[in-house]
Specification:
Layout: E1 15-19, H1 24-35, E2 39-44, H2 47-59, E3 64-68, H3 74-82, E4 89-92, H4 107-135, E5 139-144, H5 157-177, E6 182-189, H6 198-201, H7 204-213, H8 223-233, E7 244-247
Helix pairs in contact: 1-8, 3-4, 4-5
């Protein structure tokens, strides 16, 4: 009898690009991919922070390099990426949130959040896909979305709108690139303890609300995202595209 074998979760010989990689979920994703054997290119605006992250990853014996880049500057980002060898894996982790009651939303906040969370994410995904298509290579493109792409949230109308948009273009790109064996998916975390979410975690009432909504009774840590990123990047998920992997502790189970 020939028994089936689990596909490999390893990424040896792969090149991965991670945006927003200088902290939080982005840094966790970069480390996870590096641990799985990929050479990881960390991208973010602050060169000093990037270099420190790369050195820390290399000190652990893994392969990494820095690509200082402001992904909200679409032209600059596309030029930089066009000069790079094709990436086998993308993790689009850069993002911002400017929370307020919907009635208080300003045009400035609306534009800022959409510029980074939607427009920049869209065109980074496009640029990496172009590189794969030109090289005639398969790939896995992962957009960091949110549980808020599947529900609504108080004071989060703009943020929710951007993450719903990410889900939409992810599905459409998955359909378009599928014949070329380029997969496009999202990971959708609940509230993860990072510098971006610090104001929420500094508010005891908000923390109590989170713990009530999250059925497992605890907030998320960066480590909770890392395995999902490796799974979607690897051959272990080779038939998954156009999908959302919810890492929400049961928030959206209601």
């Amino acid at each position: 009898m020939q028994l089936p074998r689990t596909p490999s979760f390893r990424l040896d010989g792969k090149r991965a690009l991670v945006t927003g990689a200088s902290s939080g979920i982005g840094l966790g994703a970069a480390m996870a991919l590096a641990e799985a054997g990929a050479h990881v290119v960390l991208a973010a605006r602050t060169e000093e922070a990037l270099i420190a992250c790369v050195k820390a990853i290399e000190t652990e014996g893994y392969s990494a390099s820095a690509l200082p880049m402001d992904i909200s500057d679409i032209d600059q980002a596309q030029t930089l990426l066009s000069e790079q060898e094709a990436f086998d894996v993308l993790v689009n982790s850069a993002g911002i949130a400017k929370h307020s009651a919907a009635i208080d939303t300003t045009q400035q906040d609306f534009d800022a959040v959409n510029q980074l969370n939607v427009k920049a994410a869209y065109f980074i995904t496009q640029a990496v896909a172009k590189g794969l298509l030109a090289a005639k290579k398969p790939g896995s493109l992962i957009n960091v979305s949110s549980q808020m792409a599947h529900v609504g949230g108080i004071d989060r109308a703009v943020y929710c709108a951007t993450k719903h948009a990410v889900e939409g273009f992810t599905k459409s790109m998955a359909i378009e690139f599928g014949p070329n064996q380029i997969r496009v998916n999202t990971v959708c975390p609940t509230f993860i303890r990072t510098p971006l979410t610090k104001p929420t975690f500094d508010d005891p009432e908000r923390v109590a609300w989170l713990q009530e909504k999250i059925k497992l009774g605890r907030v998320g840590e960066v480590e909770d995202i890392m395995g999902a990123v490796v799974f979607l990047a690897s051959d272990a998920s080779s038939l998954i595209t156009g999908s959302s992997l919810l890492i929400d502790g049961g928030w959206t189970a209601d």
